[in-house]
TrEMBL record:
It is an enzyme of class 1 (oxidoreductase). This is Inositol 2-dehydrogenase. Homotetramer. Belongs to the Gfo/Idh/MocA family. It holds the Pfam family GFO_IDH_MocA_C. Residues 2-122 form the Gfo/Idh/MocA-like oxidoreductase N-terminal domain. It comes from the Bacteria. It comes from Paractinoplanes globisporus. Residues 134-321 form the Gfo/Idh/MocA-like oxidoreductase C-terminal domain. Keywords: NAD, Oxidoreductase. HAMAP family: IolG (MF_01671). It catalyses: myo-inositol + NAD(+) = scyllo-inosose + NADH + H(+). Its EC number is 1.1.1.18. Involved in the oxidation of myo-inositol (MI) to 2-keto-myo-inositol (2KMI or 2-inosose).
Length: 337
């Protein structure tokens, strides 16, 4: 039984604790912590977990074999580094860190440890629909992929969602997904700012990101985070001979009274329910067998952060911003191969 400690017991922390305790096999949540001590005590009390005062204390708990970081993005670096220093596997919700410099410090720490400890929560790689889309592309049936059109729509976002988070917290999913989908790095990014959505107050919303991949594929991503009607994730790949796209938002359509109705998920918990289950079950399995995590690595977290940093610069300057990555450390090249 893998004993997991969870840092951050907010929305996704609680959702992951629910799946670790009621859905998945071979795992128990033995410890929790949150700067909001009341919520940590409440969540920990319900599952009989030790409630720690700090993330560092939780990492040092001998009853914690592996760590799940679900606190806010700017706090990820300190907890991932603490887990690496303790030699404990750590699953970190995306983003790995909010800047590429912070991600590089994590890469250095992991390289000094000498084997992979970190997995990043880019769950789209585990989603049935995205996996089927990738299989369609890889099979060659639409010819060489040329372009991808994406939309990432949230009905609304929480009050702490501010500033550049449309790129660093939301579009970062598409940034990781296209690197995985096309097996290529993003080489340049531009951001266009359309007319302002008044539902979002001061937030710059929506945005249109245009990413150029090193192999020539061009990807556009509409990010709308106050679109009210629901959580809608779309993707269509245009190839030489055809297109391949994600299906609609629901498996069932109801036809009545002269209309066709399809429910739209309320948020990411509903849309990616199965993807989170698979990513964490596979992580638990790999770590329990004493192996390294097999999902998105700290290198993937760094590469996504480098693109999101460039996206933020593109948004602020209006420029097309080029991206160059550091040389990939051997640890990740070996793991990929
Ligand atoms: P949230 O605000 O609901 O929860 C975050 C929790 O972290 C809060 O309870 C907060 O008090 C706590 N926290 C903040 N700073 C802390 C610190 N220093 N130490 C311990 N706890 C601290 O936010 P959320 O929506 O659950 O997001 C949390 C993380 O998960 C973010 O990085 C977000 O990007 C990621 N996330 C990923 C997905 C996904 O689809 N993979 C979905 C939602 C959120
Ligand atoms: C949130 O943190 C997520 O990761 C969701 O998947 C995304 O849709 C949302 O915009 C983010 O804020």
């Amino acid at each position: 039984m893998l004993k997991v400690g969870v840092i951050g017991t907010g929305m996704i922390g609680q959702d992951h604790i629910r799946r670790l305790t009621t859905v998945l096999n071979g795992v128990a949540v033995t410890a929790v912590t949150d700067v909001d001590t009341a919520v940590a005590a409440d969540v920990g009390g319900r599952i009989g977990a030790t409630v720690h005062a700090t993330g560092e204390e939780l990492v040092g708990d001998p009853a914690v074999d592996a760590v799940l970081v679900c606190s806010w993005g700017p706090t990820h670096e300190q907890y991932v580094l603490a887990a690496i220093a303790a030699g404990k596997p750590v699953f970190c919700e995306k983003p790995l860190a909010t800047t590429q410099e912070a991600c590089l410090r994590i890469l250095d720490a992991e390289a000094a440890h000498g084997s992979r400890l970190v997995q990043v929560g880019y769950m789209r790689r585990f989603d049935f629909a995205y996996r089927a889309l990738k299989m369609a592309v890889d099979s060659g049936e639409i010819g060489l992929p040329l372009m991808m059109h994406c939309a990432h729509r949230n009905a609304s976002v929480p009050p702490f969602y501010r500033g550049d988070m449309a790129i660093t917290d939301t579009a970062v999913h598409e940034i990781d997904m296209v690197r995985w989908m096309f097996g290529a790095e993003v080489s340049a990014v531009r951001v266009l700012v359309p007319r302002h959505n008044r539902n979002g107050g001061e937030l710059e919303d929506p945005l249109l990101l245009i990413m150029e991949m090193a192999d020539g594929v061009i990807v556009d991503v509409e990010v709308s985070v106050n679109i009210r009607y629901g959580y809608d994730i779309r993707g269509e790949i245009v190839g030489e001979n055809g297109t391949a796209s994600l299906g609609g938002p629901a498996p069932v359509a109801v036809r009545r009274d002269g209309r066709v109705g399809v429910p739209v998920p309320a948020d990411w918990r509903e849309r990616f329910l199965q993807a989170y289950d698979v990513e964490l079950q596979e992580w638990v399995h790999a770590i329990s067998l004493g192996g390294q995590p097999l999902g998105p690595s700290a290198w993937d977290g760094y590469a996504a952060a480098a693109v999101s940093d460039a996206g933020v610069e593109a948004l602020r300057t209006g420029n097309r911003v080029l991206i160059s990555l550091v040389d990939q450390p051997k640890l990740y090249a070996e793991a990929a191969g």
